[in-house]
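Please check these two lines:
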Amino acid sequence: MSKKGGDYVSRGAAIPPTRAAMPAPGAPFPRRARSNFAPADLPRDWGMAGAVGAYEVPPLAESAQAAFDGLAKHLRADPLAAIEAALNVTLMPAERRRVTAESFANGVLTLGLARRADAFVAGRVWVPRLQAELAPTLGRIVIRLTYR
């Protein structure tokens, strides 16, 4: 036995579970839960009570499948369409006509510039804006500039 926080805590000895009587529907928990309560003394959702705690397998399995379906849909989506939409949002129409998204692979986006003179403005202004716009959907990307 060791003393921890003013209470004696046994190591290795199994503590028999204590189950409180099921409260009446809608009745509040009789006392305020504290951090030093045993897990069996904490309030439960009796609709999901299991042998070792609260769990609900079918809704969990359904939510996992929905998450995997959403991930598969996201991976099948064409990233160049999202990049073109982001270019339309972040650039003015005159600037937008001079920039094209050429390719996107392995987190590297290649932008084609119509004029070599736009390289400075693109590197300092357009690229940071575009990275900020695409970060929520594509994550951190590297943008390379080419001249067409």
Summary: DSSP finds four helices and five strands in the chain. The radius of gyration is 29 Å.
